[in-house]
Write a structure and sequence with these properties.
The chain folds into six domains: 1-26, no CATH class; 40-158, Agglutinin, subunit A; 163-300, Orthogonal Prism (Agglutinin, subunit A), CATH 2.90.10; 320-439, Hepatocyte Growth Factor (3-Layer(bba) Sandwich), CATH 3.50.4.10; 497-595, Phosphorylase Kinase, domain 1 (2-Layer Sandwich), CATH 3.30.200.20; 601-806, Transferase(Phosphotransferase), domain 1 (Orthogonal Bundle). The chain contains 15 helices and 47 strands. The strands form twelve sheets. The protein has a seven-stranded mixed beta sheet with strand order 37-38-42-43-41-40-39, with helices on both faces. Strands 13, 22, 23, 24 and 25 form a five-stranded antiparallel beta sheet that branches.
Length: 807
């Protein structure tokens, strides 16, 4: 046994029984890597059954055996065995599940064989050399088959499926294949490979095969010759050359293996992620992405990186991809399309209407319309493009062309695209507007068959009725009476929509909103004046809504409610949440807004993952433009009075939309300031609120300055657990960093921002101008927008008063 000091055997007073004990230790078999294990002797086997025990590692942390996959069958797999979520890290038969009664055995001939219940061989690894003497499940998660001499003949670490574990390396030519879905372990649409040119690459596959299709990420090695990917015990993963030199880091963690389980997995959505799970976790704990100084998942946005000329992209054909708050892609269908399989949105979408008739395209133009979709594109499906044209021309060009499924327009450039559409994506970084062509009305793709069936019925009926003129007249009379009564009944059933004059706002009854929200069950959030619930209107499209149920409306509450309805109903801007309607019935007062699918900015920027620098910039622009509209461009000047991340919502394209005007103080067009009680939220409130000074639109400028700093640094203004005491208040820290020329400290963990330090400096200086204690020094929102855009030069701001740190 290596590591024993033989000289201890020669100590004169050592007792004979102890000498005998140590001699026995010398004869014990050990694995090739020095880790003890429980041997699985030849002849032993496991049977696929719900109550069958697996072969476990000495510590019990890993297990080898059968895992049941729903009703589909059994997977021969390795999994984490000591946590409630028995996460699979390797499998042998991912594409060929076996049924109950199947068996895996280390035969007496020295082969490891998986046979199904009929005896057919499903899987058997190829060994080099002589037959195996034993197998073992190790505490590293590696299952080995060894010779009598203890040499490994085969190991699962050499044939990974979708996961790497600490101490496991990815050798040249080895690859990971993503699962098809989270709980469908068959080969999916993505692969991760250390290829022959020594580069580490992520590919889409030519599904259902696993051959490489389009590369969408690579380690971009410029020097050296890559030999393997190393995943060490500290959580570091890097590409190393043959001499062990690091060529490129993949994940850079320092995690205690005594306290955490670690894995790196190519997930079903094509993203390679590193996960950690505390060993002392409760039953409700889930795998979380490990903390890292580098991104803990690659690529950073799967939706935008896949742009190949073939393949369906992150989502299926005729669909488009949008990144969710959890950094996972969501697949959606354009207007006029629905999912092929609602249970598998990545299969793509199908058209719900009859395509344009190419024999008579000009006669069909009036039957179609264009649906605008901002920040969307379907790259590489173009068949014609045009320069120096306007958007209306592009619309008409697509409407009059029967081949055109959608046109995209951007700055005078028009691309016409045919179906099936592929690589669809929506993201604020995309400047294109998609002009989706859909048929008007309810004529669906199945209506031709229905129309044909109806014609047959009418013809048959006519023949039957043709034998008697009396029966024809009688039938027509009966049909007339039936439809007259049916129409009258339908009119009674359809709720009458009451619209507030001049504002296009629907006046709902309380019962309608109670039904729409399912009895006010799904809470979206809470504000100063009430609770917001999710709901859906009862019309044909069933659009989602957010219903704010105002509570404790006494005294000033009535005024606030009427203010919102009358004034906010007249606002119309792309960076404001649109008011849809209201309810003012007895003591019940509710406001109905359009639903923002991506939630609040607070959840977005203060969540586990950091949004991209570009996206945060676009959000800052959106909030600034929305405030400019409220202050200067709408019919009644509005001071919001409570600008904060919780009151900035994000739509499906992650555009910023200012919400919650319940605290707004209105000014007439001939007024410039007003005095009122303190409003707003601690940390975002301007100093004049505390000094009983007149309040102007500059209070919103102040709040925007704090919000802008939070967007730049992706952290809250006040963090008691900050790394250093001088970093607790973000506004103070940002001022110090600007004064000392150390702005890089604010974004040092954000590679995108570090590469755009000129813009970081401009945004920070704008924010500090906004939070000046003297309101007269703060710029108006028009100038703020100009400074953010770079059209107005930003001078170095003076130090704000230290008062900001005590708010």
């Amino acid at each position: 046994m290596q590591g024993l000091n033989i000289q201890y055997l020669h100590i004169m007073d050592f007792q004979l029984p102890y000498c005998f004990f140590f001699l026995l230790l010398l004869l014990l078999p050990f694995s090739g890597n020095g880790q003890a294990h429980s041997n699985i002797s030849s002849g032993l086997f496991l049977t696929a059954a719900s109550d069958n025990l697996p072969w476990t590692s000495p510590s019990g942390e890993f297990a080898f055996g059968f895992q049941q996959v729903g009703d589909a069958g059994y997977l021969l797999a390795i999994w984490f065995n000591k946590i409630p979520e028995r996460t699979i890290v390797w499998s042998a038969n991912r594409n060929d599940l076996v049924q109950g009664g199947s068996k895996v055995q280390l035969t007496r001939d020295g082969e490891l064989v998986l046979n199904d219940q009929s005896g057919r061989t499903i899987w058997s690894p190829v060994f080099g050399g002589s037959g195996a003497a034993y197998a073992a499940m190790l505490d590293t998660g590696n299952f080995v088959v060894a010779s009598q001499a203890g040499a490994n003949l085969w190991q699962s670490f050499d044939e990974p499926t979708d996961t790497l574990l600490p101490t496991q390396n990815l050798n040249l030519g080895a690859q990971l294949i993503a699962p098809y879905l989270e709980k469908n372990y068959s080969d999916g649409r993505f692969k991760f490979i250390l290829q022959a040119d020594s580069n580490l690459v992520l590919y889409t596959t030519r599904y259902p095969t696993t051959t490489s299709n389009v590369a969408y990420w690579s380690a971009q090695i410029s020097t050296g010759s890559g030999y393997r990917v190393i995943f060490n015990q500290s959580g570091y993963m890097y590409l190393a050359d043959q001499n062990g030199n690091t060529l490129n880091s993949v994940f850079s963690n320092s995690v205690s293996m005594q306290d955490f389980y670690l894995r790196a997995t190519l997930d079903y959505d094509g993203v390679f992620r590193q996960y950690a799970y505390p060993k002392t976790a409760s039953s409700s704990t889930r795998w979380a992405m490990a903390w890292t100084t580098l991104p803990n998942f690659i690529p950073s946005n799967i939706c935008v990186v896949i742009r190949g000329p073939v393949g369906s992209g992150a989502c299926g054909f005729n669909s488009y991809c949008i990144l969710g708050d959890d950094q996972r892609p969501r697949c959606k269908c354009p207007p006029g399309y629905t999912f092929f399989d609602p249970n598998d949105e990545r299969k793509g979408c199908k058209k719900n209407f009859i395509s344009q008739d190419c024999d008579h395209p000009s006669q069909e133009i009036d039957n179609f319309m264009i649906w605008d979709m901002l920040n969307k594109n379907f790259p590489f499906t173009d068949y014609e493009d045009f320069f120096s044209v306007d958007e209306d021309w592009c619309r008409q060009a697509c409407l009059s062309d029967c081949y055109c499924a959608v046109a995209t327009y951007n700055s005078g450039h028009c691309w016409k695209k045919r179906g099936p559409l592929s690589n669809g994506v929506t993201d604020p970084s995309i400047g294109d507007k998609a002009l989706m062509k859909v048929r008007k009305g309810n004529r669906t793709a199945g209506s031709s068959a229905k129309k044909s069936d109806r014609s047959i019925l009418i013809t048959t009926g006519s023949v039957l009725l043709g034998s008697s003129i009396f029966l024809i007249v009688l039938s027509l009379l009966g049909i007339y009476v039936f439809f007259t009564r049916w129409n009258q009944q339908k009119q009674k059933m359809v709720p009458q929509l009451h619209v507030m004059p001049e504002m296009n706002l629907q006046n709902f009854t309380y019962n309608e909103l109670e039904t729409a929200t399912g009895g006010f069950k799904e809470e979206l959030g809470r504000g100063a004046f009430g609770i917001v619930y999710r709901g859906a209107l009862a019309n044909e499209d069933k659009p989602l809504i957010a219903v704010k149920k105002l509570e404790k409306m006494a005294g000033e509450g009535d005024t606030e409610f009427n203010t919102e309805v009358k004034v906010i109903g007249r606002t119309n801007h792309k960076n404001l949440v649109q008011l849809v309607g209201f309810c003012n019935e007895g003591e019940n007062r509710l406001l109905v807004y359009e639903y923002m699918s991506s939630g609040s900015l607070s959840n977005y920027i203060f969540g586990y993952s950091r949004p991209s620098w570009h996206r945060r910039m676009q959000i800052a622009f959106g909030v600034a433009r929305g405030l400019l509209y409220l202050h200067e461009e709408c019919s009644s000047q509005i001071i919001h009075c409570d600008i904060k991340p919780q009151n900035i919502l994000l739509d499906e394209s992650l555009n910023a939309r200012i919400s919650d005007f319940g605290l707004a103080k209105l000014l007439k067009t001939d007024q410039t300031k007003t005095t009122t009680g303190i409003r707003g939220t601690k940390g975002y409130v301007a100093p004049e609120w505390f000094k009983n000074l007149p309040v102007t639109t500059k209070v919103d400028t102040y709040s925007f300055g704090i919000l802008l700093l939070e967007l730049v640094c992706c952290r809250k203004n006040f963090e008691i657990n900050a790394m250093q005491e001088d970093q607790i208040v973000l506004a103070d820290w940002a001022c110090d960093c600007l004064k000392e020329g150390k702005l890089n400290l604010l974004v040092e963990e954000d590679e995108e921002a570090m590469e755009d330090m000129k813009r970081v400096e401009r945004f920070v200086m704008v924010a500090i101008w906004c939070i000046q204690e003297d309101p007269s020094l703060r710029p108006g929102m028009k100038k703020v927008v100009q400074m953010l855009e770079g059209s107005v030069q930003v001078s170095v701001p003076p130090d704000p008063s230290s008062f900001i740190s005590t708010i």
